[in-house]
Amino acid sequence: MKNRTILITGSSRGIGKEIALEFSKKGYNLVINYKENEGAAKEVLTQISGFCNCILIKADVSKQSDVDRLFNEAIKNFGFVDTVVNNAGVVLSGLMTDMSEKDYDYIMNTNLKGAYLVSKVFLPRMIENRFGRIINISSILGANGASCEVIYSASKAGMIGLTKALAKEVGGCGITVNAVAPGLIETDMTKDLDFGLLADRIVTGRIGKPSDIAAAVSFLAGSEAEYVNGQVLGVDGGFLI
Fold first, then answer.
1. What pTM does this model have?
2. For the residues of the chain, what is the DSSP string, one character each?
3. Which of 201, 210, 211, 209 is nearest to 238 (CA)?
4. Cα distance between residue 149 and residue 93, in whole Å
5. Cα–Cα distance, 221 to 176 (Å, whole number)
């Protein structure tokens, strides 16, 4: 597709990086967002610069001032952003009784508040143009929860609620809002897990790859999914069957 611009939050590594690579091959203009790892973000830029127009913007999506700057820089460079992927996310594992208020704020502010702030700032232009795609990266834990992942699960459940409610709110404006709920995906966030044990619970018999999630996001952003709205697309190899 030509003349479309996508913002992917938290796209210097893992799932976000793979989504960036996927859309660069489709000719989108790309806004790569990162919070801290500038080196990794520049590496992504190097990999995709030959395929599309791309900029890097450092911003903490949990902070309104950073999100405002993210919006202004993206609009200054490309004039519009019609597709937003709320991918930025963090996780801290542990018993809920051991988690502090600071831990709660860190997870909820990045995962849920970040999706809210970013969606809110880009929505007015989408409404004005009568076209937009918002895709939230949730998790199967948002539907089922997990022991020692209470706050993370709650944040991802919140993203599902945000997705469904916002889809109803702006669906009549030519904007779709959907979520992707990854299962067990091989990233830095899951590197310490026992894949051998967990794979036995996955019907397809393998751990997911970031490219599996990127393919789902690509579908939801494309014209084939223009009648898909308010949905949560589970990409988990049958883990929750």
1. 0.95
2. --S-EEEETT-SSHHHHHHHHHHHTTT-EEEEEESS-HHHHHHHHHHHTTTS-EEEEE--TTSHHHHHHHHHHHHHHHS---EEEE-------S-GGG--HHHHHHHHIIIIIHHHHHHHHHHHHHHHHT-EEEEEE--THHHH--TT-HHHHHHHHHHHHHHHHHHHHHGGGTEEEEEEEE-SB-SGGGTTS-HHHHHTT-TTSS-B-HHHHHHHHHHHHSGGGTT--S-EEEESTTTT-
3. 201
4. 5
5. 9
pLDDT category, 241, cuts 50, 70, 90? Answer: confident
CA distance 177 to 119: 10
Tokens of 99: 């988690």
The topology under which CATH files domain 5-235 is Rossmann fold (3.40.50)
At residue 93, φ and ψ (nearest 5 deg) are -100, 145
CB 82 within 8 A of CB 175: no
* Domain locations along the chain: 5-235
Residues annotated catalytic, as ranges: 152
How big is the chain by its Cα radius of gyration, in Å?
A: 17
For residue range 169-210, list pLDDT tens digits in order: 999 999 999 999 999 999 876 666 666 666 678 999 888 999
Inter-helix orientation angle 150-170/101-108, to 10°: 30
Place of tokens 């860190």: 106
